[in-house]
Amino acid sequence: MIAHNEIRERLVRTIQQSQRVAVGRRTRAEDAERDTKTVLTQVVTPVFKTIASILKDEGYSFRVLTPTGAVQLASEASSEDFIELMLDTKRDPPALVGRVSRGWGRRVLVDELVLRDAPVIGGLTEDEVLEFALAQLGPFVER
């Protein structure tokens, strides 16, 4: 039988290790939030606004929404149809995730793709954002 003291020591070590891991995870999440905020305002939002403007010129009604921690290129025809970039801090490491939602009859189809994991979120380029958006726009603009 394992001695009470040995169980206590092992349990305390496990608790301490878990606390260290949690501190590291919170630090990575805070760094990723800071980097994502910059990328969303300086890179993603301008590209999405340009795309929305061109889509309107071509007869497709889209607008750009900026809920906290995300940027969304949303159809004005349906609230279920959008392309969004957002930070997912539930992952470790945190990741900049592209989420695509489409209404399909009574169903809503949602796909998620990781664009960048922390700590390289801050290096996301306009071209990467554009390529992601263009790859996802097909179902929204096919008539």
Strand order within the widest beta sheet: 1-2-3-4-5
Mean pLDDT comes to: 93
Rg over CA atoms, rounded to whole Å, is 21 Å
Classify the beta-strand content into a percent band. 25-35%
**Secondary structural class:** alpha+beta
Q: SSE order in H/E notation?
A: HEEEEEH
The total of beta strands comes to 5
Largest sheet: 5 strands, antiparallel
Please, how many helices? Answer: 2
Shape: elongated
In whole angstroms, the N-to-C terminal distance is 71 Å
In short:
With 143 residues, the protein is an alpha+beta fold. Helices cover 49% and strands 27% of the residues.
Verbal overview:
The chain has a five-stranded antiparallel beta sheet. 49% of the residues lie in helices and 27% in strands. With 143 residues, it is of the alpha+beta class. Helix 1 (4-57) crosses helix 2 (126-141). The protein has helices at residues 4-57, 126-141; strands at 62-65, 70-75, 82-88, 95-104, 107-117. A hairpin with a 4-residue loop joins strand 1 (62-65) and strand 2. The mean pLDDT is 93. It contains two helices and five strands; from the N terminus they run H-E-E-E-E-E-H.
Describe the secondary-structure layout.
Layout: H1 4-57, E1 62-65, E2 70-75, E3 82-88, E4 95-104, E5 107-117, H2 126-141
Antiparallel strand pairs: 1-2, 2-3, 3-4, 4-5
Task: List its salient traits.
single chain; 143 residues; alpha+beta; five-stranded antiparallel sheet; 2 helices
